[in-house]
Design goal:
The chain has a two-stranded antiparallel sheet. The longest helix is centred in the N-terminal third of the chain and has 25 residues. The chain has 330 residues and is mainly alpha-helical. The protein contains 13 helices and 2 strands; from the N terminus they run H-H-H-H-H-H-E-E-H-H-H-H-H-H-H. It is 68% helix and 1% strand. The protein has one domain. Helix 4 packs across helix 7, helix 4 packs antiparallel against helix 12 and helix 6 runs antiparallel to helix 13.
């Protein structure tokens, strides 16, 4: 028996609380991925974080209705949503191995603007001239960071094309969160998170089977590809605490983001994701000794400012982003 549809929820305070919680733990997650990525391949990190994260989501599921909540009449849509978040994470984490944390996160934060844009196409939201202009300004902010040539890692400038990684991640992430809003009509947040964690496990195991011995990393020089194709190694004793924290943060992020976009208006919720920007800047400076150049600050300011404009216009209009009718079954 497939769970009955629930009315589209709109409880902004709960949604904001969840998205803020998610941003704190996503900053922890990104920092740990960047730190551990010096010694471990990406697919190994993804496997361990998802293995621990899925245990956390299973525990939460028991408080939200139990195993019956995993039943769905739209498995194809859940699979597509999961593939989008896998692509998003793989591209963004690859960017972390090359770009400073602040640059990668700031570039990724065109995602909330894209969520608003995708809402027009997929959720039939109407966007006026102010919000459309804000989206354009946000993309100008990205171009400023890309054209500045300010990203330097190990005293070497980073090629502009590398920014395609966080931007591609943002496109996939925006599509995933729009789907979260629609699929949340039928599905609990814990189930939404479980589907994603499960797909992460499958993908990481696939990487291990075909590339876990590091054979495809031979002769590869670019850091992002090395990070993706490096051989699996058994974690050092001192790193297990970090892996446990990584897995815990993955579980919290998966549930918190699913809950936030299920409970609240997509354009409103996405605007609060910008709280991760100052956190990323601070961690990049304190933990990784990364300097923050003026073009990055200017670009990030334009992106964040554009997102805030979208939020206030959305709040003023008070127009629903998701359709109030339930999804068709079958």
């Amino acid at each position: 028996m497939v769970p009955a549809p629930h009315p589209t929820e709109d409880t902004p305070l709960k949604a904001i609380a969840f998205i803020l919680l998610g941003m704190v733990f996503i900053t922890i997650n990104d920092s740990l991925i960047k730190f551990l990525g010096h010694n471990y391949p990406l697919h190994e990190l993804v496997f361990i974080r998802s293995f621990i994260g899925i245990i956390i989501c299973l525990l939460i599921l028991q408080f939200e209705g139990g195993w019956r909540e995993l039943k769905t009449s739209t498995p194809g849509l859940h699979l597509l949503r999961g593939l989008l978040v896998v692509v998003s994470n793989m591209m963004f984490f690859s960017a972390l191995s090359v770009l400073p944390l602040a640059n990668a996160v700031a570039s990724f934060f065109v995602a909330p603007l894209l969520i608003t844009l995708f809402s027009v196409v997929f959720l039939k939201e109407q966007v006026g001239i102010f919000r459309l202009s804000a989206i354009i300004v946000g993309f100008i902010g990205v171009l400023i960071m890309i054209k500045s040539g300010s990203a330097v890692v190990g005293h070497e400038p980073v090629a502009s094309w590398v920014y395609a990684l966080p931007l591609g991640a943002a496109v996939a992430y925006a599509g995933m969160q729009v789907m979260t809003r629609k699929l949340g009509v039928y599905t609990k947040a814990s189930a939404l998170a479980l589907y994603i964690q499960g797909l992460f496990l499958v993908v990481s195991i696939g990487f291990f089977v075909f590339a876990g011995d590091g054979q495809y990393a031979q002769g590869v020089e670019h850091k992002s590809l090395v990070f993706l194709l490096r051989a699996w190694v058994w974690p050092l004793p001192g790193d297990w605490v970090l892996f446990l924290l990584l897995g815990f943060s993955s579980g919290v992020v998966g549930y918190a983001l699913s809950a936030a976009y299920k409970l609240g208006n997509a354009a409103t919720v996405s605007s609060y994701e910008y709280t991760a920007l100052p956190m990323a800047f601070l961690v990049g400076w304190l933990v990784f000794s990364e300097s923050i150049e003026w073009p990055v600050l200017i670009g990030a300011g334009l992106i964040a400012g554009a997102g805030i404009v979208v939020f206030y216009r959305e709040r003023r209009r008070r127009s629903p982003v998701a359709p109030r009718r339930a999804l068709r079954r079958g």
